[in-house]
Automatic annotation (TrEMBL):
SUPFAM superfamilies: Heme chaperone CcmE (SSF82093). Its main location: membrane. This is Cytochrome c maturation protein CcmE. It comes from Sulfobacillus harzensis. Gene3D superfamilies: Nucleic acid-binding proteins. GO terms for molecular function: heme binding. Pfam families: CcmE. The keyword tRNA-binding does not apply. The keyword Iron applies. Coiled coil: none annotated.
Amino acid sequence: MSKKLRLQIGAMFVVGALAYMVLQGAHNFSSYFVTVKTYRAESAKFGQQTVRVQGTLLSKTVHYNPHTATLRFSLVSGGATLPVLYRGAMPNEQFHNAGAIAKGHMGRDGVFDATKLEIQCPDHYAPAKGGRS
């Protein structure tokens, strides 16, 4: 095999790998999360697939058990509610009635089993004093 042919094959491999990474990145970005309403409406489509679900964390539903390190709460969006069970440390952020994204899958008991919880802190996005941002 000539040196020129090996170089061409290597270049095609690199271009193919880059194209694959770009397409995967575009796909992941386009489905960053779904709302609770969308998740509920299309639950059959998701099945046991790991999904990121976004909604408002209802403060009246928050129950933390420090002995088992479990946090139970409900996310709501568009009139749909999703009960969530998160196993892990209690978030440090002020999360009552805040936006949140839970990553996980639906359990057999109808409760979303979250492996990761991200609190969307609205105070980080407040407009600057004087009305300018």
